[in-house]
Every structure is written in C-alpha cells, then in structure tokens.
Amino acid sequence: MFDLDKNGTAPDKQVWQTLPQEEFANIGMPSLVYVKPVKAAELAGDLGNDVQLDVEPDSTLYAVHAANGSRMAVLGSREAAFAGAVQYDFVPLSVH
Length: 96
Hints:
Elements: H1 21-25, E1 32-39, H2 40-47, E2 60-66, E3 71-75, H3 78-87, E4 91-94
Parallel strand pairs: 1-4
Antiparallel strand pairs: 1-2, 2-3
InterPro entries: DUF1150
Pfam family, one: DUF1150
Protein name: Conserved protein
C-alpha cells in the first residue's frame, strides 16, 4: 500500500520508513505478539549455565515475543503459544 501525494504520485519514502527505529519497533505494541520456533539448546544458551531445561536440546519450542522483540514466554507447542497469547488478549502472528 502506498500513500500518494496531492499530485497522485508515491513519495520516495512512506511514513513508516521515516520513523526512528525505536518508534518503528513499538508499532503494534501492546496488542501484537510474535510466535517463533526455537531449539531448546538455543534457549539454554540465552538462559545461562545456572538454568537446566527439562527437554532435549534438539526439541523445538515456541517463543512468544512482544512487538519490540522482547521474549515474553516459551511454550512446548505452537498451539499452546497461540492459545496463551489469545487468552491474554494479544494478537499472535507467526514468524518463520
């Protein structure tokens, strides 16, 4: 979708392209969340050596992220991630 100027032509940059990175990251906040598959081993590295996960390292888990990228939750199935998001009035989107 392009916004047209008063001459009927598309400008060089759309409004969203001129937003500072921090403002762009907050678009959709607080209602949108992103569900992304991750390997348990990847999460273990993020959590540090003090945390032990009770799943195989090659297991696929599903991380729920806020629109700004911060991880909010990790669940064992895509369905559970979507259902949990909806339960808390978020709009879940899939990230591949």
